[in-house]
Design goal:
Helix content: 25-40%
Largest sheet: 4 strands, parallel
Distance between the termini: 8 Å
Strand content: 15-25%
Shape: globular
Structural class: alpha/beta
Radius of gyration: 15 Å
Strand order of the largest sheet: 2-1-5-8
Number of domains: 1
Number of helices: 5
Order of helices and strands: EHEHEEHEEEHEH
Number of strands: 8
Length: 152
């Protein structure tokens, strides 16, 4: 049975920049948890960032806080650790938090810290996709279910 790599914040873990979780309330998550298919991971924490931390946005492949602090190295390290974890555990599917500079699948904030979203991918989501791990956002669970069904 396929394991699913899931952003820890979507499972309610208080790992977001603001020290909170963002638990996704979807019955499929409970089913996957009962089946022991979920592997929880936060690339930002894995990259050494504290909780809480300054909000950061991705712009021109750099991750910068509103005050101008460059956090790119930590975000890249977290992405590399996420990829290595997936490879070691033969994980081919990920469910990641949309809009995050790490995990955003379809959109991210534009880097101006003004609340504007643009089409784009976070560093972890992009690295996983480049390495043949299928990435879905929390808004794409039906597509993830379809992809999983095709793998049987």
């Amino acid at each position: 049975m396929e394991k699913i790599f899931v952003s820890s914040c979507l499972l309610g873990a208080p790992v977001r920049y603001d020290g909170k979780g963002q638990a996704l309330k979807h019955p499929q998550l409970a089913t996957w948890q009962q089946q022991k298919r979920i592997v929880s991971f936060c690339p930002e924490v894995a990259g050494g960032l504290p909780i809480p931390r300054a909000p950061a946005e991705l712009k021109s492949q750099k991750v910068i806080t509103k005050s101008g602090e460059d956090m790119t190295a930590e975000f890249e390290l977290g992405a590399q650790r996420a990829l290595r974890f997936c490879k070691l555990n033969h994980i081919r599917f990920a469910l990641l938090k949309e809009s995050s500079p790490s995990c955003g699948r379809n959109n991210i904030y534009d880097g101006t810290h003004s609340g504007i979203k643009i089409i784009g991918m976070g560093l972890t989501a992009a690295l996983l996709e480049q390495n043949d791990i299928k990435v879905f956002s929390e808004m794409q669970i039906p597509a993830l279910l379809k992809a999983l069904a095709q793998e049987v």
